[in-house]
Specification:
Distance between the termini: 18 Å
Number of domains: 1
Largest sheet: 8 strands, parallel, barrel
Shape: globular
CATH class: Alpha Beta
Number of strands: 9
CATH topology: TIM Barrel
């Protein structure tokens, strides 16, 4: 994880969601140009193309009220990101613009065909010579990597979801995920925890018991960054430019 500690990680690329949309080729180019690492989100289209996009719905970023997993890639090419000329990129096209020393964090979205998505990402990355690791909120993804691809650095994404009224996860599972109870089986190499939940007791205990790297998401100001440095070693940011150390 040392390369990830040495650079701040640009969340969905270096974007402003005006002329530079999140998870767009131009956002990733900006992150590379400014020597940041990159965190991005992977989903699988209806016709089995790996694309980089965060939401399950296209509505926020394109204005189209459809779910991404119900669309083919050719269909997605018709939709522009936030009224720019940018479109939802193929994951392989993003890889082509990265430098070999760009620390890359690949998030497998927990919805849809997450295991098939994971398998296809693993297969694609066999031909990639740069730095990367894979993370997910879905503990089954982390378990799959542990069991089948132990050479890949794996991360468990989590936050205090118990009070998240927008989450569709049942309350019992929220308790398990918030308190990282799957980690006793999955043994992730790092825990990516929402920085504002850093005082969660289970997060503190589990990270120390298993000596897991602590990754903070998503830092949105210099003040938050300085506070998070007390507990985390790696930092995913957006909405501001971090001061140079």
């Amino acid at each position: 994880m040392k390369p990830y500690e040495e650079r701040y990680i640009a969340h969905r690329g270096l974007f402003n969601n005006l002329d530079i949309p999140e998870n767009s080729l131009i956002a990733f180019e900006e992150a590379v140009k400014n020597q940041y690492g990159i965190e991005l989100d992977i989903q699988l289209t209806k016709d089995d193309k790996l694309v980089v996009f965060h939401d399950s719905s296209l509505k926020r970023m394109t204005g189209i009220d459809k779910n991404l997993i119900d669309c083919t890639y050719d269909e997605l090419l018709q939709y522009k990101l936030l009224d720019t000329n940018e479109v939802i990129p193929l994951f392989k096209d993003v890889l082509n613009i990265l430098e070999k020393d760009t620390p890359l964090i690949i998030e497998i979205k927990p919805e849809g065909r997450y295991l098939e998505t994971t398998k296809r990402v693993v297969n694609l990355m066999q031909g990639y010579n740069g730095l990367y690791n894979i993370e997910s909120f879905n503990p089954y993804v982390v378990y799959y990597l542990k069991k089948n691809e132990p050479q890949i650095i794996r991360g468990q994404l989590a936050y205090n979801s118990i009070n998240d009224k927008n989450s569709k996860v049942n309350f019992f599972l929220k308790i398990i995920l918030t308190n990282l109870l799957f980690n006793f089986i999955n043994r992730p190499d790092y825990i990516a925890y929402q920085h504002s939940d850093m005082n969660n007791l289970s997060f503190r205990i589990v990270s120390k018991i298993y000596h897991a790297e602590c990754v903070a998401w998503t830092i949105k100001s210099q003040k938050e960054l300085e506070e998070a440095k007390k507990y985390y070693k790696c930092f995913i940011f957006d909405s501001f430019i971090p001061d140079k150390d």
